[in-house]
Amino acid sequence: MKLLVTGGAGYVGSVCAARLVEAGHEVVVLDDLSTGHSDAVPDGCRFVEGDIAEVAGSVLSEGFDGVLHFAAKSLVGESMQEPGKYWYGNVVTSLRLLDAMREHGVPKLVFSSTAATYGEPEQVPIQETAATRPTNTYGATKLAIDNAITSYAAAHGLAAASLRYFNVAGAYGRFGERHAVETHLIPIVLQVAAGQREQVQIYGDDWPTEDGTCVRDYIHVVDLADAHLLSLQQAVSGEHRIYNLGSGTGFSVKQVIDACRKVTGHPIPALVASRRSGDPATLVASSDRARNELGWQPERADLVGIVQDAWDFAQARQEV
Ligand code: UDP
Predict the structure, then answer these.
(1) Phi-psi region for residue 112, left (φ > 0), alpha (ψ -120 to 50) or beta?
(2) Which terminus, N or C, of the chain has the lesser number of Cβ atoms within 10 Å?
(3) Model pTM?
């Protein structure tokens, strides 16, 4: 297939683009490099640098079989302080992309949605039928796009899937997490092991969980990328399918830090700090729908293995 990957210079987008190229697809990456890196675009992809809202139409006019839409603003804190950046950058941009796809007859879309569309869950593990009550602007914008895709699929025959990611982690060779502003737990903890930070702050140890720290579902970025390929292959015209993607097991912040100590051999000093606003205590996915409908299976769910891949990537980056 000939595929457009928006955000293919970013973390998940670059891993997915690399897997698509390996699977024999023709891949064009479109990225404005606002947070991505041109050297993260995998070999074998054609790279177009540009703003999706402006250039999606001209790029798609070449004719494509599908779009994988990763490009987005994704910092929760920033989304609360600068909501316009998220409503325009995520929602308006995605509407332009949907219209360009329609205009040029591109039949398939896989969209990067998020567990943040659910907000504070009533039940864990979280199923796709759970209420969607996002607690931050980032999640609200992703939910708005999901809703737009549902309408476009029903009205215009688009074949679409939204994948609701839980906590993506790990790396794939030279493709991994390289955020200018790092907020995610595993890369932050590994920065301590690499000597780039003094200590890690644990955001609260008085949560209603076994060890008092927040529990999250960490999914290996390669397992996640593979779900994109499966949902693209199985997308059906006129339908918008939604899948939660996690490994189905929760790990606490303390367990993550311990896994990082084990992998790096570094003591990793940790200090308990106050809670971070907007954090739910526990987020764990039910990925039964993805398993049953897509035949997807997380193959790299072991936390130590996930951290090992992230650590190998971080160390290789230090040598660059
Ligand atoms: N966390 C932490 N210290 C940090 C960064 C994150 O204790 O320096 C916690 C955070 O409160 C959450 C978990 O680690 O409970 C995962 O946070 P992350 O930002 O990686 O992902 P999120 O679940 O917010 O999408």
Answers:
(1) beta
(2) C
(3) 0.97
Residues 6+ apart with CB under 8 A from 56: 6, 30, 96, 97, 100, 101
The tens digit of pLDDT for each residue in 199-220 reads 999 999 999 999 999 999 999 9
Q: Which 8-state DSSP code applies to residue 87?
A: I
CB-CB contact of 150 with 201 (8 Å): no
Q: SS3 for 269? A: coil
d(CA 37, CA 107): 28
Question: Do both 89 and 43 map to the same domain?
Answer: yes
Domain that holds residue 46: 2-168+219-245
Q: Which residues, judged by CB distance below 6 Å to any ligand atom, belong to the binding site of ligand 1? A: 167, 183-185, 188, 200-203, 214, 216, 253, 276, 279
- What total number of domains does the chain contain? 2
What is the whole-number distance in angstroms between the Cα of residue 66 and the centre of ligand 1? 33
Closest residue by CA, ligand 1 atom 21: 184
Per-residue pLDDT reduced to its tens digit, 297-308:
999 999 999 999
**What does DSSP assign to residue 293?**
I
Active site residue 165: no
Q: Write the residue with the smallest CA distance to atom 24 of ligand 1.
A: 279
| Distance (Å) from CA 175 to ligand 1 centroid | 21
ipTM of the modeled complex: 0.98
Q: Which of 11, 86, 138, 218 is catalytic?
A: 138
